[in-house]
Specification:
Layout: E1 6-9, H1 16-26, E2 30-35, H2 39-42, E3 52-53, H3 59-72, E4 78-81, H4 99-124, E5 131-135, H5 151-171, E6 177-182, H6 202-213, E7 226-229
Parallel strand pairs: 1-2, 1-4, 2-3, 4-5, 5-6, 6-7
The structure holds NADP nicotinamide-adenine-dinucleotide phosphate.
């Protein structure tokens, strides 16, 4: 019998996180679900299954979760850094830009991803071919930037892409890789209300993301990480 594959997904309170965890489980993976609120909220009917508490904005929370996880699983084959926050979308140059809020967004979207990947590295390198899937965004593409605001979100996702590139350089000699992914415009509560202008439900996006991730057409590991959308189309950095 083939060895069970093990994944960890952050941000499993709501939105894309639980949809990816469900999709992986449907494919036979064992999934460790992590969530900001932990078991209480994530066990609610629409919140996915029980999850471990992991606040990716805090060193102590990530460290404590990592210790617990290392007692639960022998290795990690796939780490999905999904948790993220949006921040202000309105303020443009010359307006009252809240730099403290930008720092909070940066701390979750850029540093949070690094915290989790770093804490999970001892488990990742026990896998023969570990994959880190960072849920980034088209908003992190410097080359195609069109917004006049969204400072925290766009800057933090661009930084997320860079930390992914550095992590890729460190993991590749150990047989691993990092993939940066734009998950598509999804109908989630990230904006504080259900985004009904979105193209995909989280479940639809998750299905396409996993199809792309496990496709035989996925580009082989290369010097640089892939930056692709949910259907595998390459994105501009
Ligand atoms: N929605 C889109 O159209 C879109 C487009 C491009 C990229 N993305 C990216 O896709 C990912 C998932 O977004 P989503 O649309 O599913 O948003 P969402 O519904 O708001 O889900 C985000 C998840 O991250 C969690 N989270 C927030 N801060 C956290 C922290 N400090 N520690 C741990 N978990 C934390 C949230 O927990 P709580 O619910 O408890 O706050 C929630 O479970 C994000 O990285 C986002 O940037 C989304």
């Amino acid at each position: 019998m083939a060895e069970e594959k093990i994944a960890l997904v952050t941000g499993c309170d709501r939105g894309l996180g639980p949809a990816l965890a469900d999709g992986l489980e449907a494919l036979g993976w064992r999934v460790v679900r992590c969530a900001l609120e932990g078991a209480e909220k994530a066990a609610e009917p629409d919140g996915g299954r029980a999850a471990l508490r992991m606040d990716i904005s805090r060193d102590d929370s990530v460290r404590a979760a990592a210790e617990e996880i290392s007692r639960l699983i022998p290795r990690l084959d796939l780490l999905v850094n999904n948790a993220g926050i949006l921040g202000d979308m309105e303020k443009t140059l010359g307006e009252d830009i809240d730099t403290q809020e930008i720092l909070r967004v940066f701390n979750v979207n850029a540093l949070g991803t690094l915290r989790v990947t770093n804490a999970m590295t001892p488990l990742l390198i026990r896998s023969a071919a570990p994959v880190v899937l960072n849920i980034s965004s088209e908003a992190g593409s410097v080359g195609t930037c069109w917004r006049r605001g969204w400072w925290g979100y766009c800057m933090s996702k661009a930084a997320n892409n860079m930390q992914g590139a550095i992590a890729h350089n460190a993991l590749r000699p150990l047989g691993g890789r990092v993939i940066q992914m734009h998950p598509g415009h999804m109908a989630t509560y990230m904006r504080g209300h259900l985004d009904e202008t979105a193209r995909f439900t989280p479940a639809e996006a998750a299905e396409r993301i996993l199809r792309t991730l496990f496709s035989p057409d996925l580009k082989a590991v290369d010097e640089h990480p892939l930056f692709i959308d949910l259907d595998g189309k390459e994105m501009a950095w």
